[in-house]
Structures are given as C-alpha cells and as structure tokens.
Amino acid sequence: MNQWIIETEHLDYGFRKDEKILDDINLRVPQGSVYGFLGPNGAGKTTTLRLLLGLLRSENPNIRLLGRQMPGSRIDILRRTGSLIEQPSLYLHLTGLENLEVFRRAYECPASRVGEVLRITRLSDAAHKRTRAYSLGMKQRLGIAIALLHDPEVLIMDEPTNGLDPNGIIEIRELIRDLNRQEGKTVLVSSHLLTEVEKLATHVGIIHKGKLLFQGTLAELQNFQYRRALLEIEVDNVTRAEQILSGRFSVSVNGGSTIHVGHTKPDEAALINHMLVGGGVGVSRLSATGNDLEKLFLDIISA
Amino acid sequence: MNTKFFANTTAEFIKTKRSFALWLTILAALFIPAINVVILLERPEMLLAKFEQTPWLTFFRFNWKNVAAVILPMYIILITNLIVQIEFRNNTWKQVYASPRSFADIFFSKLVVIQVLVPFYMLCFDGFVVLAGLLVHSVNPAYRLTASSIDWNSLLMISGRVYLGCLAVSVIQYWLSLRFRNFVIPLGLGLGLWITGIVLMDWDKIIYYPYVYSTFMFFIDFDKEPQQLVVIVTSSIAALVLSVSIAYYDMKHRPERG
C-alpha cells in the first residue's frame, strides 16, 4: 500500500478561471502521522481540505485518500474519513445525543458508538443538553465526536482550536494526540498558529498564497530552522574576532561590538567561543538569534 | 441503499425536532377553519341559504378556496425555506456532504420530509375543517353539518387534486431554498412567482405556469369542463418531473457544496 494516506499531485484550484487559490500543491500525509497544515488566514488551507473531502468540485484527478481517488471513490473514502471543517457543524436546537444520532444514521454505525464517542470526547454528562447551551470547547469536542462516530482511519480537521480559551486548546490538543497515539488515527490538522502545530504535529506542511512552501517532518523543519540560526556575540575586539572566524564561518558585524556568526550545529557555539577566547578575544555575551519557529515561519512565507 | 435512504430520511425528521415546522403546519392548518367558524356563526342570515343544498361540500369549498389560492402556496414557500434553512443556519451542509451519502440520498431525503409535511398540513387542515363544521352545527344546527352526512369523498377529491397541483411548486421552492443561503431570496422569489401567477391568471399560456395549478385544481369546475382536468393533471405531472430533473441536475453539478 502507498505510504501516503493523503496525497495530491500538482493540485491547482480557483473559484474563477483567472484566479489560482491553490498552485501546484503536492501534499503527502504519511500513515499514522499528525500532519500540521500551517499557513496564515487565506493561504488556501480550507480550500485544500474542502477539495480533499469532495466539498469542492475539481478537475484534478490526482487527489487520493487511503489509496482511492476523490471524487471517483467519494463514498468509500468518506466511510473511512472523519472531518471537522471550520466551526463545528451542529444542529443547535438538538441535544448532543440527537446530533450524534443524526450522523450515526448517515455513517451506518451501531448505536453503541454514540456512547463510546461521548466518552472519548468527555461529553457523556452533557449528552442530553441542547448544543446551543454548549461552550465553544464542548461544541468542538462534539464536532470531533461526530467525526469519530464511524471509527475512521483518517481525521481531517480545519482549525479545531480556533477561538478556544487556553484550557480548551489544551483539551483538544490532548484529544488529537490520544487519537493518534492510542487509536492509531492519521490526523491532518490545519492551523494558522505555529506554536499549536509545533506541540502536536509529527509532520508539517506550510502553505502560503496557495503554494506549499515547506513539507517534511517536524525535525526537518527544526533543522531547516537551525540552518538559518545565527549566534550574536558581543566581543571586545570586532576586527580580531572577524579574522579568527571568517575562514570557517560566515561573519557579519552588527554594530559597535556585536558580530553575527552563522552556524549549522549546536556544538559549534562552543567551538566558536573556544576559538575566540583562544585567539585573545574577550566574549562578554553569546546568544542564539532567529531560531524560533515563529520567525522561521514568517521568513518562509515572506520569502 | 433503500435501508440507508430510509435511515437518512428518519434522520432528516430528527432535524425538524423543536423547529417551527410542526407549529407552522398546525397553525397554518387551523387559521382558515377558525376564521370561518366565526364568519358562519356571525353571519347566518347571509350564509344559511348557501348551505341548504350540499352543506358539507359548500363548507369544504368555503374553506378550501382560500387555502388552494393563498394559504397553501404560502405554506409551501415557508416550509421548504424553513426545512432547508436548518442546514444553512447551523452551518451543517458541509458536514452533511462530507458524510458517506450519495448526492441523490441527500437531495431526496430532505425532499421526502417536505413531501410528508405538505400532505400532513392538508390532513390537519381537513381535520380542522371537519371539526369546525361540527362546531358550527353544534352552535347553530340550522347549518345541518351533522357528523353522519360528512362528504368524505368530496373532501378527499379536493385535497388530492390540490396536492397534485402544488407538487411542482414544492419542488421549485425546494430548489430555490437549496440554491440560496439567504432565506429572503427564495422567500421573495416564491412570493413574486405566486403573485405573478395571480396577475397572469387570464393569460392564454398560463397552463405552463406551475404556480397556478393548485388554484386551477380547485376553482375550475371539472364537471362542466372535464377535458380541463386532463390538461391540468398532465401539466402538473409534467411540471413535477421537469422541476425534479432540473433541480437535481443543477444541485448535483454545483461547483461548491456545503
């Protein structure tokens, strides 16, 4: 079987003929992963997810989920896929239990699943309450419960933590993590918050203005980030420091007594310090800059 | 497939729970009989003479004339809008389309709900008409609306014909309600199309206009013009088939769902 549980090839999409909302998206979501689909608002995340679920008609034949083609095998795919697109889709005049009952019939799963998903999402006590009275966090959890009803292999979630308070965000994050680790579900989760994706994902895709700018494991993203990191060093002799390091590292002077040194591995910081001190340069401060993912994300999307 | 369609149709009925659909049906059915009870009891000197020959048939027609021409089209416009708006208002279309249901299943299961509610409205209306007649008789026996003489055949005949006449409109309104997220648009279009029918009633091509079929089904005297019944029944069925086909094709080929 193909190792990619979700796959698109050269996916383009526009709502009009003269526009490109998505431009050559080659998404690769490995089985068993939590794939963080990251991008600022309006980047094309929701459009991509809607295409994956067959909610938008596409001429592109190369959208594949679970080895099957969308939209040709739409029903087969949706039988094995759970989804939560944007805000939760709930009938607010019905109770949580009634909402689940409506979708249970569509998914043709046994009545016992309703109790199970309520337990998984910790909503058993609120099952008989009308969902209008639910907090946003509870609504999101019920949305996830609906997505889990048919015990799908893949979960596609669009900004599931959007608008939640910190407690709600942690709850949803833990729930997704449990679903991935304990239930073995592949999760594709979109977000515009890097910090969220960083805490949850094993794989990351960064989309901006309809283009997939980065795709890989979280470790690869961190490596990528590290390659772009600089050491900011405050020295008593800038000229001498530049002479010592410039043969091996890229050095730039940044103000009176500060230099920026590019490096690729964490242990090189110790080596640089050793070289400077050994060369008679006094080092009063040494710090890493530009190594936070947030900045990297901004760098990638503004490149 | 059939079991699944049945299960999904029952799910569509669950969605109407606690909505205004049931109240709208009962209130709309009660409206005309309630008013007519008051009119009959307040104006016996004007109306008694009309009720002498065929009291029940006269009473049925007295009630149905308003319903066939005005209340039923209004009810259909409102109920189709209300049923479809349950999805728009709750932002649930995308979840419905992201569930493993065929497009036909989604389209027709909701249409079935509407096609159950419209006859249910008519049944309620007929029931209220009979109760209203009995109430009128109990207060003023001169109307001779006794339980034993209820003309069930005429009542069923009127109801059946008017229902056949309104079927295409119910599908067109369903299509418009699906097509537009903003509930004002199908509501306004429905009212506009219905008023246009009333205005163009004397037009020689009006037989091609489905919004007048239910009115024609009631107001044309088919005993005098039996050939007209064939024309209107044929037109109603043709309009129904055509409206279902166009609505289904159009909705299935929309570029965006949910």
UniProtKB/TrEMBL annotation, chain A:
All residue ranges annotated as the ABC transporter domain in the record: 6-234
Protein name: ABC-2 type transport system ATP-binding protein
Record-linked InterPro entries: AAA+_ATPase, ABC_transporter-like_ATP-bd, ABC_transporter-like_CS, P-loop_NTPase
Molecular function in Gene Ontology: ATP binding; ATP hydrolysis activity
Keyword entries, A-Z: ATP-binding, Nucleotide-binding, Transport
PANTHER family linked to this entry: ABC TRANSPORTER, ATP-BINDING PROTEIN
Family as reported in the entry's similarity comment: Belongs to the ABC transporter superfamily.
Keyword ATP-binding among record annotations: yes
TrEMBL record, chain B:
Pfam (any one): ABC2_membrane_4
Record field: transmembrane: 20-41, 67-86, 107-135, 155-176, 183-200, 229-249
Entry annotated with the keyword GTP-binding: no
Keywords, comma-separated and alphabetical: Membrane, Transmembrane, Transmembrane helix
PANTHER family according to UniProt: INTEGRAL MEMBRANE PROTEIN-RELATED (PTHR37305), MEMBRANE PROTEIN (PTHR37305:SF1)
Protein name according to UniProt: ABC-2 family transporter
